[in-house]
Amino acid sequence: MIGLEGWMDIKDLRNQGHSIRTIADITGHARNTVRRVLRQPRVPTFGKPERISGLDPFKPYLERRFNEYRLSAVRLLAEIRPMGYTGSIDIVRRYLQTLRPHKRGLEKLTVRFETPPGQQAQVDWGYCGRFTDTQGRMVPLYVFVIVLSFSRYLYVEFTTSMDTATLIACHRQAFAFFGGWPKSLLFDNMKQIKIEAGQWNPLFLDFANYYGLVVKTHRVRRPRTKEKVERMVFYVKDNFLNGRVFADLADLNAQARGWLADTANGRRHATTGERPVDLCGKEGLTALATVAPYRLAEQQARKVDWEGFVHFARSRYSVPPEHAGRTVIVEPREQKIIIRAGSLIVAEHTAAPRPGSCMAAKEHLDALWKLSLARPAPTGPSWAVTFSETVATTPLTRYEEGLP
Hints:
This protein has helices spanning about 5-15, 20-25, 30-40, 60-70, 75-80, 90-110, 165-180, 200-210, 225-240, 250-265, 275-280, 360-375, 395-400; strands spanning about 120-130, 140-150, 155-160, 180, 185, 195, 200, 215, 285, 300-305, 310, 315-320, 325-335, 335-340, 345-350, 360. It folds into 3 domains: about 5-110, no CATH class; about 120-290, 2-Layer Sandwich (Nucleotidyltransferase, domain 5); about 295-404, no CATH class. The termini are far apart. The chain has about 400 residues and is an alpha+beta fold. Helices cover about 35% and strands about 20% of the residues. β14 and β15 form a beta hairpin.
């Protein structure tokens, strides 16, 4: 039976324009129950008094612990037993079941906000399946999607790779398509942007710094903060890819350009009420002519091993040992190998004369020796054991005499 608050919640959600399915997901009630409530013209009389449960005093505690850590009923029962709860675990389980739909509903909540012109673009990849190439190999297909947040002006490009070099090339072509670039880019936590928590991909960061871009990633477990581009990935698959045939990758991208002009950017957007192509001129993007195009050299991200070297083109190059375990950019320039951490050049070597060479700078090796000598000697265990009994030992002479 639904109480007064539940009845009011369903009516309120309906007034906000939610569908029956969405209301059922948010409240945790069955769809038939939601339909029955919506057919009722006024608040029904709830004659039965609310039944008092022995779990009531513990519900605030259970709700807090469950929402924080998703603890099981078994674990929570063990916690509330010492607090005086005497009921069964089934009652705890039933109560936790009422919390789960509500939590799922909260995860769907999204704060919609409109971005000022020229401030942001949202970027994402979409996987589009695998297809056979002319040599009979199965090749993956991806779509790069970037949308200007204010105007909803869209650019897409289909690729067979999602590596960092491809990502940078797609951005360059998108900026040419837009006629400039915004102040910031919003991504999810893809490896091409963040190698791990707190460590950015230095190759992409170099590209972003060149254009003065602020790179942001959405909060962990909150992908809905970049919902504009996620909707566009679905839109591309449904409105463009679905039901069409393409001769090859070049034909696919050529048809995509036509679809962008005729449909995606020429339609009246449901949220803004205007065509993206008309609003794009109001973005105020940084113009392409302000800097020369970014030169995508043969740069590669490499991780420094714990001996203070990076591997590049089948040779090894030393770096200062404080960078061991970190990712750096290696870039060949004429007969030089430049190694950078972010925008700082940390090492410069003559290119190796042959594969398998080891190019080591004396100052790097000296610093490595100093660090290894300064390393503290290993200490004993951080626990203590006291032997209170005497351990019996047998002298070796006893065995030599043949005695047992």
